[in-house]
């Protein structure tokens, strides 16, 4: 896909997401529009499975930009996220110079610590725009990374640059479109949040979740789709350890379609509950008579 211009309005931003199959509300479209226009990172916080990562994917696809994803985890360091040197190639270069018998140490150091031996990791790649324009940089699940790495990101997000001691400061000619996500397993420092525009991505309301399901699982009949959404919306009101996200709703609907279901049945719901809930304690709370009550309520709501 060719590079597309940035949307010129909130409505155009919402339409851009919609064209990629992402059903957004106006609040999300507004903050995304401002992030694009002001060239500020977008900080998305919310429960797992509500569609935070998908926003960056759809944005990259619809704008025709490459998507560079940095998946965060405990122990993530500069060598994995920003850059490292190709030590094996450097050693070969050094031994070749020594074998030639004329080693100018100062020149050799300059040679082996040149860009030729630099391995670019996601953050550095994102600062070097290609012919398709600045990429979309997705820093996913930042709360999984250590606070030391979070502090390192400040230079990247504030100044669109990184410092490589042997080469100096590398700055972006065109800042990347940055989307940062977190599941809020820990608080992110205010210094980083101040550099971003913030949005809480909540569970969708009934109408929006139904629209998402229609878009993503077109094989689901209208009655089944409505019952699935009514059931999941009610399930989120239960005292669960982890409520199902939109991703689980879509997986469950797709599983029911695969099993040729046209309406919710308590037995089939019980058999497929592991698609929707991921903790045995939560499944145990819902099994039995509670499943029947929720199914009956969902069917009655759709019939009304």
Commentary on this structure:
The protein has 304 residues and is of the alpha/beta class. It folds into 3 domains: 10-74 and 130-200, Rossmann fold; 83-116, no CATH class; 206-296. The protein contains 16 helices and 9 strands. The strands form 3 sheets. Strands 2-5-8-1-9 form a 5-stranded parallel sheet. The protein has a two-stranded antiparallel ribbon with strand order 3-4. Strands 6-7 form a two-stranded antiparallel sheet. Helix 10 packs across helix 12 (246-258). The longest helix has 15 residues, at 289-303. The chain starts with 9 loop residues before the first helix and ends with a helix.
| Structure annotation, total helices | 16
CATH architecture of the largest domain: 3-Layer(aba) Sandwich
Strand residues, percent: 5-15%
**Low-pLDDT segments, ≥5 res:** none
End-to-end Cα distance, whole Å, is 45 Å
Summarize the structure.
With 304 residues, the chain is of the alpha/beta class. It has three domains: 10-74 and 130-200, 3-Layer(aba) Sandwich (Rossmann fold), CATH 3.40.50.300; 83-116, no CATH class; 206-296.
What are the defining features of this structure?
16 helices, alpha/beta, 12% strand, 9 strands, two-stranded antiparallel sheet, 51% helix, single chain, elongated, Rossmann fold, 304 residues, five-stranded parallel β-sheet
Topology, please?
Layout: H1 10-19, H2 26-38, E1 42-45, H3 52-63, E2 67-71, H4 78-81, E3 83-85, H5 87-100, H6 105-112, E4 118-120, H7 122-127, E5 136-140, H8 147-159, E6 161-164, E7 168-171, E8 177-182, H9 190-193, E9 197-200, H10 206-216, H11 222-235, H12 246-258, H13 266-271, H14 273-276, H15 280-286, H16 289-303
Parallel strand pairs: 1-8, 1-9, 2-5, 5-8
Antiparallel strand pairs: 3-4, 6-7
Helix pairs in contact: 1-2, 10-11, 10-12, 11-16
């Amino acid at each position: 896909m060719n590079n597309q211009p940035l949307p010129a309005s909130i409505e155009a931003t919402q339409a851009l997401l919609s064209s990629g199959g992402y059903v957004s509300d106006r609040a999300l479209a507004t903050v995304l529009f401002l992030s694009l226009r002001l060239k500020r990172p977008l900080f998305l916080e919310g429960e797992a499975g509500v569609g935070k990562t998908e926003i960056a994917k759809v944005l990259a696809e619809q704008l025709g930009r490459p998507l560079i994803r940095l998946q965060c985890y405990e122990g993530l360091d500069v060598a994995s996220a920003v850059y490292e040197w190709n030590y094996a190639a450097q050693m070969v270069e050094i031994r070749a110079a020594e074998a030639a018998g004329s080693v100018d140490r100062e020149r050799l150091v300059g040679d082996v610590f040149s860009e030729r031996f630099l391995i670019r990791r996601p953050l550095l790649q994102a600062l070097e725009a290609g012919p398709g324009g600045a990429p979309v940089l997705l820093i996913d699940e930042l709360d999984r990374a250590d606070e030391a790495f979070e502090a390192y990101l400040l230079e990247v997000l504030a100044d669109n640059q990184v410092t490589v001691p042997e080469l100096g400061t590398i700055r972006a000619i065109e800042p990347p479109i940055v989307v940062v996500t977190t599941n809020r397993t820990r608080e992110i420092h205010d210094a980083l949040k101040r550099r971003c525009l913030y949005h809480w991505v909540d569970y969708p309301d009934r109408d929006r979740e139904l629209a998402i399901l229609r878009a993503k699982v077109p094989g689901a009949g209208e009655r089944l789709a409505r019952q699935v959404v009514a059931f999941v919306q009610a399930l989120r009101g239960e005292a669960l350890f982890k409520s199902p996200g939109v991703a689980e709703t879509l997986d469950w609907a797709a599983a029911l379609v695969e099993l040729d279901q046209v309406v919710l049945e308590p037995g089939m719901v019980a058999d497929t509950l592991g698609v929707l809930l991921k903790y045995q304690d939560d499944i145990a709370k819902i099994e039995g008579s509670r499943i029947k009550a929720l199914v009956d309520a969902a069917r009655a709501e759709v019939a009304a």
